[in-house]
Amino acid sequence: MSRKPVPAQAGDKARIEVVFDKPQLLGRLFGEYDKNLIAIESRLGVYISARGNKLTIEGFADQIGRARDVLTGLYNRIVQGQEIDSGAVEAVIAMSAEPVLDGIIRQDVSQPPAVMIRTRKKTIVPRSATQIKYMEALARDEIVFALGPAGTGKTYVAVAQAVQMLMAGQVDRLILSRPAVEAGERLGFLPGDMKEKVDPYLRPLYDALYDMLPAEQVERRMTSGEIEIAPIAFMRGRTLSDAFIILDEAQNTTPAQMKMFLTRFGMNSRMVVCGDPRQIDLPDIGKSGLADAVGKLQGIPGMTMIHFGAADVVRHPLVGRIVQAYEGPDE
């Protein structure tokens, strides 16, 4: 390894060593062509060298401490059988920067998270501090609002929790809904029948499902009615009991649609409302059902509102910077 550290702050440099007891796992820890080590060096301004099962980290004190925690956390996840990709590396680096406030210790990134969601195809672990709170709320509360920018995992994690509960028999049905609101292209101009017209709007929900379940199970359960994906207009007049219900892109509902949707809630059900209040495609952006609901329902027992920000974006790091740039310094 001939990489050189990037100084991150003024002060005295230091060096620490980390020893791993299973050297056969270090290839997965380092990543192809050492890409994981390069990402940690670049983000934290440290220099990492390896010899056998020992890693030496050089840099300034705060940075090398974070780098040690990140490497240890990733290694422990591998030991537990979790897959490590670039997203996981970025997530652990981001969580290592969480501040320590008023005696509240930040999430210990050196250990695998205590909360996770298991589906047939993968295990979902939190990739930001806010996702930890979100997963806890999904497991605990009957109605959860997930508010924030794209890329924070709002819908994806909700679908994972829904699939887990369906597989465990805790609910009988999984209902995924979304408003079919045009974003630059009108439904009437799209080819095909009504299903073919609305399916593009529901595609992200299909994608999340196929990530959690084998394709044949998705198709079979959709045919039997255990899984339903439909525009919000299809919810009218129904009472949804023993179901896990997810509303995606909720910022594009009207107040009347949001009231209609929320009042579909039935016995032994869970409901998750996902949306970004800053990305409204309605003709009158001042009449978003999501903003209206948040204002009216804040603080109701049994209902939790989770707020994501640019720091919680778990896509490519550039996406987080783009979101932050659009939100502005005062948001």
General description of the model:
- This protein is of the alpha/beta class and 331 residues long.
- The protein folds into two domains: 13-95, Ribosomal Protein S8, Chain: A, domain 1, CATH 3.30.1370.10; 117-327, P-loop containing nucleotide triphosphate hydrolases (Rossmann fold, 3-Layer(aba) Sandwich), CATH 3.40.50.
- The chain has eleven helices and eleven strands.
- It has helices at 26-30, 35-44, 61-79, 86-95, 129-140, 154-167, 194-212, 215-224, 255-262, 289-297, 317-327; strands spanning 13-19, 47-51, 54-60, 117-118, 123-124, 143-147, 173-178, 227-231, 243-247, 270-275, 303-307.
- The strands form three sheets. A six-stranded parallel beta sheet has the order 8-7-9-10-6-11, sandwiched between helices.
- Helix 2 packs parallel to helix 4, helix 5 (129-140) runs parallel beside helix 6 (154-167) and helix 6 (154-167) crosses helix 7.
- It is elongated and about 65 Å long.
- The two termini are 41 Å apart.
- Mean pLDDT is 82; it is low at 100-106 and 182-187.
Provide a short characterization of the protein structure:
By secondary structure, the chain is α/β, with parallel strands linked by helices. The chain is 38% helix and 17% strand.
Based on the model shown, name its key terms.
single chain; 331 residues; alpha/beta; Ribosomal Protein S8, Chain: A, domain 1; Rossmann fold; 2 domains; 6-stranded parallel β-sheet; 3-stranded antiparallel β-sheet; 11 strands; 38% helix; elongated
